[in-house]
Amino acid sequence: xxxxxxxxxxxxxxxxxxxxxxxxxxxxxxxxxxxxxxxxxxxxxxxxxxxxxxxxxxxxxxxxxxxxxxxxxxxxxxxxxxxxxxxxxxxxxxxxxx
Length: 98
Hints:
Oligomer: single chain
CATH superfamily: Fe-S cluster assembly (FSCA)
Mean pLDDT: 95
Structural class: alpha+beta
CATH class: Alpha Beta
CATH architecture: 2-Layer Sandwich
Helix content: 25-40%
Number of strands: 3
CATH topology: GMP Synthetase, Chain A, domain 3
Radius of gyration: 13 Å
Shape: globular
Low-confidence stretches: none
Number of helices: 4
C-alpha cells in the first residue's frame, strides 16, 4: 500500500517548483494502519505559500482515491521548517543544484 501511496505522491507537484512533493521532501511522515487508514504529515516551503490550502487538500483527495485506502488524513506542519536539505539527490539534479 505504501508503494502505491508514494507513487501518487510522486505525481503531485508544487506548482512553483518543477519537482514532485515526494522528491522535494515535503512528506515528513507516512503511516498506514491495519484498516488502511492513511496519515500523512507534510510541509510546504513556507507558511505563506500560495498553495498552503490547496496542495494538502489535493494530497488528501488523491490518496483517498487509491483503491483499498479506507480514509486519508493530511496534516501540515512547519516544524521543522522545510529546507533544501530535505530534497532527494534526484530533485537537486532536476533543479540544477548538483
